[in-house]
Structure formats: structure tokens, C-alpha cells
Amino acid sequence: MFSDVVKTAARPENESDRLAALHEYRILGTKPEQSYDDITTIASETCRTPIALLSLVDADRQWFKSRVGIDVEETPRDWSFCAHAILNPEPLIVPDAHTDQRFKDNPLVSGEPGIRLYAGFPLQNDAAHRIGTLCVIDRRPGELSPAQCKVMEALARQAVAFLELRKRSIRLLESVCQMENKGGMISTCSYCRKAKDEKGHWLHLDQYLSQHTTLNFSHGICDACMETHFPEVIDLWKQEGHRSS
User: What whole-number distance in Å separates Cα of residue 135 and Cα of residue 143?
Assistant: First the structure.
């Protein structure tokens, strides 16, 4: 009954390629994973919003790989704010959905979860396929600070990195299953953990396995890597802690 009032997003010009790229990750419908849940938790805490989602936009739905603050696993694509966000590489910030002509009649605004502030940061791979968003939502109007936007952009990049690692791991697992000599030994360096191929070249392990196999990995962010790769998150938390003390 909402179809006459909801302003649905246009389909991207590269929609067929975009969907093909999304399905390559083989992630739709999978169980929660700590690495993705860490990202939405950091997003929610950083932006001080009750809701944060890692949303993947499929042909007719948006499905949440990770979610903070809501119980539903998916919503129709026609209702999706994220379907609008993937039309451009820049973040989509909607300070108050009640006053935005695109969204004021949306069921997710007039009903649960009562969206007012929406901030969606596209998940874009190297081929410029925007498969979804990392977004934060509040039930009150608001804005994100430049520092919060910077963190969200970094987290969105990290989510894409995890997805790319997943795709690579799946291909590696498939290759492993196809190996003729499954009982063979792999020579690895005790220090850098590189593997030596049959030509005597030392390769990063994922490079070696990509040439001989296809595995499934789960990834997180350790404390040391958080400090190295996401110093802006650490700095923002320290600033917030200083102001609240």
C-alpha cells in the first residue's frame, strides 16, 4: 500500500554488474561474524547513534550482514535509504527524514524504526561497484561531525576489505578442493610466513594459495592494527573520553 507514496531509488546504470559483484562475495544470508559486528559497534559508538547497519543491497531487498539496535534482518529495497546511497560514491547524509521529500512518506520513517537522521557511506570495491552501505541511524534529527565522517569512511573501507578477503578465501578454498596433490607440503618462512612456490619464489601466503587453491577466513581487527590503521578512531575516542571526564 506504500508503493504510491514511497519514492523508490533509481537503479544504478551498472546494476547487473553490481549485483554480480555482490553475489561473488557469497555473503547474503550468512551468520553474524565478529569482524563485521565490530565495525557496526564502532560506528554506533563513534556517531552516538542507537542504530548502525552493514547493509547489502540485493535485487529486491536490503539485507543486513551486521546490525546494532534493530532486530529485523532485511527490508524491501523499495523502502531502502541505502538504495539511494549507492547511486553516488559520496556519503548520503539526511539530517531529518521527516522534512526530506524523498523519505518523509517512507514506512521506515512513519513506522519503525522511526528514522530521522540517516548517514550512509557506500561500500565500493575497486571496480566502482557500490554493493551496499555502512550506515548509522538516529530517531532524532542530527548531523555527523567531520571527525565522525572520517571514521565512518575508514570503517566502510575496512568492511570492503573484509569482503574482498572473503571472496579471495572462497576462491582459495575452491582451488584447494581441486588440487591433485592434496597431501603435499608447503614450505613457509619461519619469520615472515611467506611460502615458497615450485619456482623458488617467496610469496605471501594468500598469493601462494591463490595460485594453487581456493579457503574461508574470518577476520577481525587486533588492538595493534587498530592503532596502526585506525588512529582516527583512537583519537576520537580519547577526545570523547576527555570531554566526558
Answer: 13
Q: What is the mean pLDDT of each run of 10 residues along the chain (245 residues)?
A: 66 96 95 95 98 98 97 96 97 97 94 96 96 98 97 97 90 63 62 75 74 58 77 80 61
Residues 44/46/49/51 CA torsion (nearest 10 deg):
-10
Among candidates 218, 182, 189, which has minimal Cα distance to 203? 189
Q: For the whole model, what pTM was predicted?
A: 0.73
Pairing of strands 195-196, 61-68: unpaired
- Please give the domain boundaries of the chain with CATH numbers for all domains: 15-164 (3.30.450.40)
Alpha helix stretches (DSSP H) within the chain: 15-24, 34-47, 81-85, 107-110, 146-178, 205-212, 223-229, 231-244
Length of the chain: 245
Whole-angstrom distance, CA of residue 9 vs CA of residue 68? 24
Find all residues with CB under 8 Å of 101, minimum gap 6, and list them. 7
Any idea which residue has 547487473 for its cell? 16
Task: Count CB atoms within 10 A of the CB of residue 4.
Answer: 6
Give 225-230's long-range contacts (Cβ < 8 A, gap of 24+). 229/154, 229/158, 230/151, 230/154, 230/155, 230/158
